[in-house]
TrEMBL record:
It comes from Deinococcus aerius. This is DUF420 domain-containing protein. Pfam families: DUF420. The lineage of its organism: Bacteria, Thermotogati, Deinococcota, Deinococci, Deinococcales. It comes from the Bacteria. InterPro entries: DUF420.
Length: 159
């Protein structure tokens, strides 16, 4: 059961990374409406990931690395950076979403983002996403790598 939850957690975080990448391309091509939808989907998938991950933790499922010794250091670097940045991603995403939401309310609609009341929020949105996007992509990519490594070199210690 816990192994299946773990599999779904990886699927949701990878899909959220894909939706995030699509959202970046969409805003680059000027499609704000589709950008908003892609980012809300990315956020919903990341939230689902968090729920699945916490459920898995609650079930006590854990795997340890039993692969080649010379890769242990690299593996732990990946794992620790992944955990720290995953924790940082939550406030980063909330900051980006909050400013987008306030900006949208001040603008009235996405065609009016240049309105003086909306401008400061979208400027802040851009400042937040400069960090949010790379951190989120790193977390999604390393989550998938860790899953593959543990699939090959992992041993269940609690399940
Ligand atoms: C956490 C989720 C989100 C992320 C990671 C994100 C990411 C981005 C990125 C990378 C840009 C381009 C910034 C630049 O050109 O320097 C951007 C711009 C923009 N985003 Fe988002 N976005 C998110 C959610 C939203 C939502 C929900 C909305 C809708 C209300 C929205 C509306 C906009 C608008 C209107 C712009 C253009 C701002 C401007 O040209 O000044 N974003 N966003």
């Amino acid at each position: 059961m816990a192994a299946i939850i773990n599999q779904w957690a990886v699927i949701t975080i990878v899909l959220s990374g894909i939706a995030l990448t699509a959202g970046v391309f969409l805003i680059r091509s000027g499609n704000r409406e589709a950008h908003m939808r892609a980012m809300l989907i990315a956020s919903a998938l990341a939230t689902l990931f968090l729920v699945l991950y916490l459920t898995r933790l609650g079930l006590g499922y854990e795997k340890k690395y039993v692969g080649p010794e010379q890769w242990r250091g690299a593996y732990f670097f990946l794992l620790i950076s992944h955990i720290l940045l995953a924790a940082a991603n939550l406030p980063l995403a909330l900051g980006a979403l909050w400013n987008a939401w306030k900006g949208l309310r001040a603008a009235g609609n996405l065609g009016n983002i240049g309105a003086p009341a909306a401008r400061p929020f979208f400027n802040r949105h851009r400042a937040w996403v400069r960090w949010t996007v790379p951190v989120w992509l790193y977390v999604a990519a390393t989550g998938w790598i860790i899953y593959l490594v543990l699939g090959r070199y992992g041993e269940v210690v609690k399940g």
